Amino acid sequence: MAHQWRGVIREYIDRLPFEASDPIVTLGEGGTPLLEAPALAKLLDVGNVHLKFEGMNPTGSFKDRGMTTAVSKAKARGAQAVIAASTGNTSASAAAYAVKAGMTSVVLVPAGKISWGKLSQAVAHKAQILQVKGNFDDCLRLARELSDNYPVFLVNSVNPDRLQGQKTAAFEVVDVLGQAPDLHAMPLGNAGNISAYHLGYREDLELGRIKKLPRLFGIQAEGSAPFTKGGPVAKPETIATAIRIGNPASWDLAQAAKTDTNGGFGAVSDKEILWMHRFLSQETGVFVEPSSATGAAGLYKLSKQGELKGLDQVVITVTGHGLKDPDWALKDDRGKKIKPRKVAAAAVAVAGLLGLEKNR
Ligand SMILES: *Cc1c(COP(=O)(O)O)cnc(C)c1O
Predict the structure, then answer these.
(1) Which atom of ligand 1 is least distant from the CA of 324?
(2) Which residue has the CA at smallest separation from atom 1 of ligand 1?
(3) Were both Cys, which of 120, 197, 287, 354 would link to 322 (CB 3.0–4.6 Å)?
(4) Residue whose CA is closest, atom 2 of ligand 1?
(5) What letters, b where the CB count within 10 A reaches 16 and e where it falls short, cover 3-13?
């Protein structure tokens, strides 16, 4: 019988704080494609680029890697309900894993700033969804306070069980490349992801699976860029809702990731994000939500400044699937809605519109 990927806990159990006899709540997350992207290598003027396509996780974002570990631990501790603050993807993931665990879920999302795709997932998995009159940072403050004082278990990335699961993405990159890349970039929001990659690569270094750490780069949206501003942003704004976070919870861990790997933080405009969103769709075949294009957009900016010269292996994590927030694909670069043309149900009419000449 063919082997089926068993989810990150079972695949990496000897490298996670789990025993085979522990309750394991999984939807088969992880094992995502690491895709060669020659068009991007050419654009960035580096040797090789691989995209770690995290949109291929069961709920369509990398959050599932940390949700399997967080919800499994919650189950072992007897939790009946989980709570999460979310810009969208954490709520989709928490709701799905809660169903699998037989628990209820509560999600706090910022009013009006969550995409329909993500909201529909939380609704489908019967989460109790509350739209908070505030931003993500307010939602996280509330979720922490509620989990401290009520019988609900917090599954945000401030829960260390989340990072344990998310570090497996670094293991998978090393499994495929047989080494660490020179540089690894990703979008930067609450900073759980960059902290988890740091943890994973560090462990690989200590085990001798890699000889050096990759330089880790976290890229924010300009309107929501506390790491390049040097402190919290009170009113974060960007179309990249997954990284619309002004006061990142994993601030210190992200600073450590940067210092320890000789990495960096960057920020790009919404326009640059949307340009790269389209480039990825049209030139690499990988459809992502706009936030997920931020890592590549940041590297493009660095490459134009000559900062990537001589790099051989570059990995870019694209964090979430394009179907989560498809509206952006249906607008042209001036923001006008794209509608397929209408045509009569006749081959000659279709060929005419396509400018095709009949075979002779
Ligand atoms: C959560 C998320 C991010 C940001 O990751 P952090 O761990 O908060 O830095 C980026 N992109 C997508 C699609 C996400 O869901």
Answers:
(1) 13
(2) 242
(3) 287
(4) 242
(5) eeeebbbbbbe
Q: What pLDDT shows up at residue 222?
A: 98
- Residue span of the structural domain in which 221 resides: 8-61+160-324
Query: Does position 194 have pLDDT exceeding 80, yes or no?
Result: yes
Helices (H), 16-115: 38-44, 63-76, 89-101
pLDDT bin (cut points 50, 70, 90) of residue 262 is very high
DSSP-derived pairing of the beta strands 183-187 and 313-318: parallel
How far does the centroid of ligand 1 lie from the alpha carbon of residue 21, in Å? Answer: 31
In terms of residues, how long is the chain?
A: 360
- Which two tokens mark 66? 């940390």
Q: How far is the CA of 177 from the centre of ligand 1 (A)?
A: 24
Residues 237 and 147 grouped into a single domain = no
Backbone φ and ψ for 9, nearest 5 degrees, come out as -65, -50
Among positive and negative, which fits the CA dihedral 220, 264, 44, 168? negative
Note the pLDDT tens digit of each residue in 15-43: 999 999 999 999 999 999 999 999 999 99
The angle at the Cα of 48, spanning 43 to 54, to the nearest 5 degrees, equals: 90
pLDDT tens-place string over residues 206-225: 999 999 999 999 999 999 99
In the chain the first and final C-alpha atoms are separated, in Å, by: 50
Task: Check whether residue 131 and residue 228 sit in a common domain.
Answer: no
pLDDT at 2: 78
pLDDT (0 to 100) of residue 332: 84
Residue that finishes a domain, picked among 154, 171, 204: 154
Spatial CA neighbour of 26 closest among 57, 63, 68: 68
Of all protein residues, the one whose alpha carbon is nearest to atom 15 of ligand 1 is: 89
Rounded CA separation 294/335 (Å): 19
Residues 103 and 52 reside in one and the same domain: no
- Cα 187 to ligand 1 centroid, rounded to whole Å: 7
- More confident of the two residues 260 and 331: 260
The predicted model scores a pTM of 0.96
